[in-house]
Specification:
Two copies of one chain form a homodimer. By secondary structure, the first copy, chain A, is mainly alpha-helical. Chain A has a single domain (3-326), classed as Farnesyl Diphosphate Synthase (Orthogonal Bundle), CATH 1.10.600. The first copy, chain A, has 16 helices and two strands. Chains A and B meet through α4, α6 and α7 of A and α4, α6 and α7 of B. Chains A, B: It comes from Cecembia rubra.
């Protein structure tokens, strides 16, 4: 394993120990057990890791900000707990969602307390940095909710424009990655222009990640993907691929696509194969890859424009991001 | 109208104008319209009023803290929006609840944004006061959620002790009144011991208010009450009155009470009359009044022990609280 991976794993281990040792409260247990539960389901901890790595560009004592970094993860898991209710999702990371394991009321109220606890963790910040960090956190949190509402609205809309879709994924998923990076930089006392560039780095990379998610759902290598290929096609999810296909399909393609979308009963494999063929005819894979690359390039250009004291830490964050960009599942 | 009422009404008018002129956001409208809607349903605005009056004990420029005071009201309405989903309540202040007028998902997500906006309003505080105010706000917010969870748990429990019930209403409703007062005092730069006494004043008065609510539901003057007398009896709500009755009823009283509680079909008026008669036999009205008076006395004793620069403002807050104590609906 490369040295960079060792370094990242050491940080992740410290973070994980901090998360596991944290107490959110004890009574009533119906309120706090779901918080420990969702936080223990794992996940890659990308967001707090980005905070710690951005901080490490400027300072070496990342252990000092484990609690504020954890706030980003707690906030993220709060949105998952509430989104899962709204999306009626039975599973999260292969385990029962909170509203399934307990009930919707518990998932609402536990989520509310999680958000409060995330703010509590922000109090671990140096007081003079609290107002600016909290303002950015609030802005980000509101945008994440706005993105979720737009996403739900899209489900009831016939067509969604590319611009509206990109803006939705920017709000729903990308701004939190941007905030995670900017937050770490601010906590380290980075120059404000650097902090803003790190935000833009995160947002652009984040949009690219979501486009990659959309793409992998259809074009992933079955062996490597680890979940069903074509799930979005089966459920008519309005991904970048589908909305571009609806925009560009003509004549017979269009008829066939609409028929598959409107079909009430169908063979799943057949639908995935048929819609993928339409995508192939239109060249959706290339279109999505090129859009994704556009955002990745924009993000990396922002990152390349900052000048940090710790060049080694700079390479670590760069390599981690590149690995995420190149992931195949 | 007395001068004190004129003063209170002037403050309420300024507060109401501030609330009405505030923008929570615009797009997507599904997210922000429910916030304006619930905030426009009115209510007595007691909590922010307490913040402004506590501030006025020490300073005259309450207009400076209208936004932070409003945070308390926005937080309160956030809890109402989410509680109404959990309680499956069709009406709030005579109008459709948010989850009825829109849907549960919208009520979840709009509520989430309301909580974020409440924190945003706290940023209007002098930076050096932000950490202490936010710590108290977080503590209060978590306790309110804990109280709501305890209240929901009680619905599935055979018996609830007096101590557990008092603690539940302390968390669910009283601590926010305590916070509202302490918050105003802190913003005005009051001595910390005064601020803490004002908190205790609010908490004890708040417990008294809830006991009074429980009492009025059964013993209010029908003409003055404005809503159905006995609603809690009809729905078997575990109020202070019911849990004391279950604790103290013996023999035939106990059998009759249990029969009414377990009856699936019944004449509402008959049930209210019969249960009220059992309450009368046991002396529940006196018991509740005496418990209520205990908390009111404790609260007013705390208030009497502070020494503030503005004696007139002291009388205004005292009279307002006494009016609330003496209300008959």
């Amino acid at each position: 394993m490369s040295q960079y991976k060792n370094d990242v794993n050491k940080i992740l281990e410290d973070l994980e120990n901090h998360i596991q040792g944290f107490s959110y409260g004890t009574s009533p247990k119906e309120l706090y057990e779901p918080i420990s539960y969702i936080m223990s389901l794992g996940g890659k901890r990308i967001r707090p890791l980005l905070t710690l790595l951005a901080y490490s560009l400027y300072r070496e004592d990342y252990q000092e900000i484990l609690t504020p970094a954890m706030a980003v993860e707690v906030f993220h898991n709060f949105t998952l707990m509430h989104d899962d209710i709204m999306d009626n999702a039975p599973l999260r990371r292969g385990k029962a969602t909170v509203h399934e394991k307990w009930n919707a009321n518990t998932a609402i109220l536990s989520g509310d307390v999680m958000l409060v606890r995330a703010y509590d963790m922000l109090l671990d910040i140096e007081p003079k940095l609290l107002p600016i960090c909290m303002a950015l956190f609030n802005q980000t949190a509101a945008e994440v909710c706005e993105g979720q509402q737009h996403d739900m609205n899209f489900e009831n809309m016939g067509t969604v424009s590319e611009a509206a879709y990109i803006d939705m994924i920017r709000q729903k998923t990308a701004v939190l990655l941007g905030f995670a990076l900017e937050f770490g930089a601010i906590l380290a006392g980075a120059p404000p222009t650097d902090a803003k560039k790190l935000y833009e780095f995160g947002v652009n990379i984040g949009i690219g990640f979501q486009l990659k998610d959309d793409l992998l759902d259809v074009y992933a290598d079955k062996e490597k993907f680890g979940k069903q290929v074509g799930g979005d096609i089966i459920s008519n999810k309005k991904t970048f691929l589908l909305l571009k296909a609806k925009e560009l399909a003509t004549g017979d393609q269009n008829t066939a696509l609409e028929n598959w979308i409107n079909a009430k009963e169908f063979d799943k494999e057949q639908k995935v194969q048929a819609v993928t063929e339409i995508y192939d005819q239109i060249g959706i894979k290339n279109l999505t890859e090129s859009k994704m690359k556009e955002y990745f390039d924009k993000g990396f250009a922002q990152y390349a424009s900052i000048n940090v004291p710790n060049q080694y830490a700079y390479q670590v964050l760069l390599k981690l991001t590149q690995d995420l960009v190149n992931r195949e599942k």
